[in-house]
Sequence to fold (289 residues):
Amino acid sequence: MASLADQLRGTRIGLSLSSGFFGFFHHAGVILALDELGLAPTRVTGASAGAITGSMLASGMDGRGICDALFAVRLRDFADLRFPPVSGRSFALLGGHRLAARLAEVLPAHSFETCRLPLALGATDLDDGRVRHLSSGALVPAVCASAALPYLLPPVEIAGRTFVDGGVAEKTPLVPFLSGPRVDVVLVSYLPRRTHDAPKARTGLLAFLPSPRSLILSMPPEELVERDRASVTLLREAGVRVLVLAPPRVALGPLSLERGPAAVEQARTGVLRLLESPSEDALGSPDLS
Fold:
């Protein structure tokens, strides 16, 4: 029986890269595996970390080029402390200027219109809490908007609207594949939550303070999962095959960037194993299976 990779060759492939804290290394490993298998996406969507990696792919970089660019990133490339941290209606520890400058330096294309592949990036409209899929105009501000994690990076204004991280309202931007250029299959590079344990009760003198997670996410993770499940259902009802790629991930953050190569390699080998199988039984994730 033909492997999943063989089944996908010659089809129009959409690639959707989910949000997930510093998950861009993982997404790069997924893209590297697709390159090795000769599977070239024809459309790309992304949110937050997925927007960073997705914009690199859509603007013309291959998997190895994306990895090289990410491996070169250091804390100083994006950690510009904002003082004062409060400005207008926003609070953010970082200014976001270094991130924008780094993206402008790395990305081959600076507008959606000049990208090699059609691209849509999920961002959350701060005024009404709804997700918007940005797909035209300047690329760097859109990527910064999609990755503007609340309280870490400031909101980004685009065309009179104010946006924050796309992962706040929608984990995986799948809806764009229901319109526009047709695809036969959507591959989802999915970053599940790092733990599925029940939240522990907070105790001690500071138990009254909100948890860091509650400050960052305004929507329950379970609702984000349900939205993704509903989008997957709509795509399948429209005749689009959906394969969720969720191999184990290496968790890292801004102070552990040296783990980037390990994260890339784990994602790469995991996707190769999944797509070299002839069955979809090994696919899925704890959230979207």
Notes: The mean pLDDT is 89.
